[in-house]
Fold this sequence. Notes:
There is one protein chain. By secondary structure, the chain is an alpha/beta fold. The protein has helices at residues 14-31, 34-50, 52-55, 73-81, 154-159, and strands spanning 59-61, 85-91, 97-101, 108-110, 116-118, 133-137, 140-142, 147-148, 168-171, 177-178, 192-195, 199-202, 212-214. The chain contains 5 helices and 13 strands. The strands form 3 sheets. The chain has an 8-stranded mixed β-sheet with strand order 3-2-1-6-9-11-12-13. A 3-stranded mixed β-sheet has the order 8-7-10. A two-stranded antiparallel ribbon has the order 4-5. Strand 11 (192-195) and strand 12 (199-202) form a beta hairpin. The chain starts with 13 loop residues before the first helix and ends with a strand.
Amino acid sequence: MFPAAGTVSDVPDVQLRKAELRAQILARRSARPADQRAAAGKQIRDAVLDEPRVQMAGTVAVYYSIGTEPDTRGLVFALWKRGSYVLLPVLRPDRDLDWASYEGPDSLVPGPRGLLQPAEPPRGVDAVARADAVLVPALAVDRAGRRLGRGGGSYDRALARIGPLVPLIALIYDDELVERVPAEGHDVPVRATVRPRAGITLLNPRNPGPPSAVGYD
């Protein structure tokens, strides 16, 4: 069972510290060769598909990667091909996330900010709460599950709708599980990460000791 979300401590300069860490990680990602990003995406895909809680999930909320993010296009396709009901985010004008079903690569259309989004009718912002597993983007995660996003707040609102027992998994590169991510009170911890070489690592927001790596090393 994935651990439930815990609490975080706010600090006055948290937004500045987030911005500094975000800039460092984005610079490292930009320097990563395209073939390494592609290989990382395949390793992450295989680890996610082998995860029992994802295998049992009838509905999986995931995202379609852009730019220097670990590639999730193969993962999205593989989940759909094996029969999962796949939900992808649809960015709303208020920056909240709606959700719509993925029906294969030809079902995607250009969205805002370079995103590809499903052309299917949106299912509502609460559709993510009915997913059996949720895979989310992150720039960094720490051993307590604190997640650094891109700063828009879209996923913070979405993750707040997810129940405490749902596998909430961030997909990151191996060097992005860090000692500490600065967090604010509204930040929702994730319960695991998947990294290319390390595979899945369960996190414990209530006991931020050394992370527990599970398989795939």
